[in-house]
Inverse folding.
């Protein structure tokens, strides 16, 4: 692990009558700080050809003959797992707190209701805030067949959470555990939603403005106000910002606010409170903007992640066990 700000609350083994213990492996690559976008859950907007090539990682985390193992960590301070890879696929999910995943020069947020699927061999870095509770579920790639090969969001339904935790916390006969792990794999399927990709400007003065807005999305300064902070006219700022990011400063600020709203609503915060916290006196205005960006109202959008959602809807197939 990259630092020591985490308490491991569950042993790294898959409990079993034969008490075998997997081996942890970390692969460190150079750090990359300049990410061109901030992304949320869903299918990546990157074309497959732009993804990093998988890195061979020979050591196992999941011991034979198992397919699935979950490790729980609790952050005791803001911390980072630096870039590394795993031989297994990883499903990263949380039970609260701010968790982010960096991979392929993009940043994904990990809200409590959804996990992030990281294909085997994908170099990635994980950050978490103090108090975050993080789960890493590892899945043996040669025993699992999926219809996707990139980073995607996975709905963490109540059933999937309970099966994964039951597998990790309880002793049982080997055959029963193998059946339970197959049930877990059958419950894994990608979310049917496009990612919210927020491009970051490359120019230092524009990037400074962007970072201030990200730090305080409710900041109500106008384009002219922001322009004065870097010594240009409002018209010049509008033109430069659009040339650098492909979107206007006003549209970009809305995307940042919707990103924050998605995370806070996913964590259980009421829509009205979220809207007011983002500077909208009228929640209806916020809901209209949310609909324009996402395509649904907040209530309709989050209903799409209900535990009753069918694994095969919209033609998407769940993961499958192969033997």
């Amino acid at each position: 692990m990259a630092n020591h700000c985490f308490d491991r609350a569950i042993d790294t083994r898959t409990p079993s009558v034969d008490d075998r213990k997997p081996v942890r492996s970390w692969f460190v690559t150079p750090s990359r700080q300049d990410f061109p976008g901030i992304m949320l859950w869903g299918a990546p907007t990157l074309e497959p050809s732009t993804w990093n090539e998988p890195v061979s990682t020979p050591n196992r985390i999941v011991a034979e003959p198992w397919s699935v193992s979950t490790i729980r960590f609790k952050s005791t301070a803001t911390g980072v797992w630096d870039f590394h890879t795993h031989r297994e696929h990883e499903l990263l999910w949380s039970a609260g707190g701010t968790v982010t995943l960096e991979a392929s020069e993009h940043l994904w947020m990990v809200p409590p209701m959804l996990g992030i699927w990281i294909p085997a061999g994908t170099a990635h870095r994980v950050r978490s805030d103090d108090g975050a509770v993080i789960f890493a579920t590892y899945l043996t790639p040669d025993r699992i067949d999926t219809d996707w090969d990139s980073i995607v969001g996975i709905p963490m339904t109540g059933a999937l959470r309970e099966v994964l935790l039951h597998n990790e916390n309880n002793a049982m006969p080997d055959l029963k555990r193998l059946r339970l792990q197959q049930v877990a794999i059958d419950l894994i399927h990608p979310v049917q939603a496009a990612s919210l990709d927020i491009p970051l400007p490359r120019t230092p003065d524009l990037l400074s403005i962007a970072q201030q807005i990200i730090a305080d999305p409710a900041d109500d300064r106008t384009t002219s106000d922001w322009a004065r902070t870097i010594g240009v006219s409002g018209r010049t700022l509008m033109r430069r910002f659009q040339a650098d990011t492909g979107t206007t400063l006003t549209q970009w600020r809305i995307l940042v606010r919707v990103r924050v709203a998605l995370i806070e609503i996913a964590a259980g915060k009421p829509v009205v409170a979220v809207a007011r916290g983002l500077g909208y006196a009228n929640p209806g205005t916020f809901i209209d903007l949310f609909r324009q960006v996402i395509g649904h109202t907040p209530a309709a959008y989050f209903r799409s992640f209900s535990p009753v959602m069918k694994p095969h809807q919209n033609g998407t197939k769940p993961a499958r066990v192969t033997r």
